[in-house]
Amino acid sequence: MLHRHATAACTAALVAAGALVLTGLPAAVASETPTPPAGPSSTVQSAAALLGADRPSPEVLRALQRDLGLTDAQARARLVNEAEAGAIAGRLRAALGTRFAGAWVRGATSATVTVATTDSADVATIKAGGAEAEVVRYGLAELEAAKAKLDQAATTTRTLDAPVWYVDVRTNTVTLEAAEAAAAEALLTASGLDRALVRVRTTDERPQPLAHDLRGGDAYYIGAARCSIGFSVTSGTQQGFATAGHCGKEGNETTGHNKAAQGAFKASKFPENDMAWVATNADWTGTPYVKGEAEKNVEVTGSTEALVGASICRSGSTTGWHCGTVEQHSTSVTYPQGTVTGMTRTTVCAEPGDSGGAYLSGSQAQGVTSGGSGNCTSGGTTYHQPINPILQAYGLTLKTTASQPGEAGKSGGTWAAGKVYAPGDQVTYDGVTYRCIQSHQAQSGWNPAAAPVVWQRA
């Protein structure tokens, strides 16, 4: 069942609760600053509408209120603001190029979006684009390259005592969390990394994959072990679902929540990544939903990646439906089985058996549960494998409520529905060249001419 809420009263509540109000751009700034990106005013409604943020499900709203301490109006405002903020940040990223140093939202309703740059001359451009500006030392590309050195060093260095590292755009560092100072020092030495880029934090965290005893969020079984379904996907006419790689190996057979024969792992990768997909038999039909609170369906409308600071909710077969915030992307975490890279770190709680389950921001698919620490009684930290790399690696198409046959583009264009695009990717469509500004899997209704939230004319 779909639940839509888009009334005049709701719109007024959003503004009162602190929703972003995007105005037209001011007159051109001084010639020494870059040209601001195309004005966001034309996409205030289209961002929320395209990403489904203006019609959140009751399950998402209730969980945000419970886990983030929000009112109904604040939860609605936050979802709209986060959709708009992603579009703002994407355009500014394209405008700043290598000077871009990350973006994040803050505040109870995510009413403030900050974009960081390495050049103070960009401040006027950022403000004109609808964001607050922060001038920092290192660009995002430089931080990601530094983190990649830690990833490489972890292949030959023991990291169980320094198990987590990530690009932290809010502190403009690569942050290494360690339980033992010697372990942090050993990894840094092996990486040859410039220490100026690194912040070391003390932690007692010992992450573990969340599947030891053994819908999105529904249970499935691999022998006696239990994991959770992530998102329904298709590969051509074959149906199945995305889940965590540590839940099973290629060829492992699965049974469903009712213990009926379900399918088998078609592909799996763990560690390094934590991704897999299960091809199901003809008795199972995928749906574009995740299990929310009280077994209610929460729709999935796409896979646009949420900003740091954005709200995010998770569904799992052990602990059900819980919410928190995105803390960092580009995180590496060491489990006893090895180091996994490319994770997203969140404040959402989880427990064993939740592995593989779905993470959503609003109605946008984010990833599948990998592991973490803590629990849903005392709180904790979790990591998820982003969904877009899974779709890309295995050639899968995410099932969404907007899913329909796609078109390959017009007039010999290169854009194609079903393909995963990252910021900076360029395509042609109907004779025009476009640049991707937000990571997503293309859908037929999201062609570049119709989706300025994720595409910009190059």
Q: What number of structural domains do the residues give?
A: 4
Classify the fold: give the CATH topology of the largest domain.
Thrombin, subunit H
Strands side by side in the biggest sheet: 17-18-19-22-21-20
Rounded Rg: 21 Å
Summarize the biggest pleated sheet.
6 strands, antiparallel, barrel
What level of helicity do the residues show?
10-25%
Task: Point out poorly predicted stretches.
Answer: 1-36, 38-45, 404-408
Q: Can you tell me the overall shape? A: globular
Total number of beta strands:
28
Name the CATH superfamily classification of the largest domain: Trypsin-like serine proteases
Which CATH architecture of the largest domain is right? Beta Barrel
SS strand fraction: 25-35%
Question: What is the number of helices?
Answer: 8
SS-based class: alpha+beta
CATH C-level name of the largest domain: Mainly Beta
Q: How far is the N terminus from the C terminus?
A: 39 Å
Mean pLDDT: 89
Descriptive overview:
By secondary structure, the chain is α+β, with helices and mostly antiparallel strands. The chain has 4 domains: 8-26 and 35-135, no CATH class; 140-202, 2-Layer Sandwich (GMP Synthetase, Chain A, domain 3), CATH 3.30.300; 207-403, Trypsin-like serine proteases (Thrombin, subunit H), CATH 2.40.10.10; 420-457, Carbohydrate-binding module superfamily 5/12 (Seminal Fluid Protein  PDC-109 (Domain B)), CATH 2.10.10.20. The protein contains 8 helices and 28 strands. It has helices spanning 8-17, 44-51, 58-68, 72-96, 123-128, 140-153, 181-191, 387-394, and strands at 100-106, 112-117, 132-135, 164-168, 173-178, 198-202, 208-209, 219-222, 225-228, 231-235, 238-243, 253-255, 261-269, 275-280, 289-291, 297-299, 311-316, 320-335, 338-346, 358-361, 364-375, 379-386, 397-398, 420-421, 426-429, 432-436, 440-441, 455-457. The strands form 7 sheets. Strands 17-18-19-22-21-20 form a 6-stranded antiparallel β-barrel, surrounded by 4 helices. A 6-stranded antiparallel beta sheet has the order 12-13-14-11-10-23, with helices on one face. It has a 3-stranded mixed beta sheet with strand order 1-2-3. α5 (123-128) links the parallel β2 and β3. α3 packs across α4. Mean pLDDT is 89; it is low at 1-36, 38-45 and 404-408.
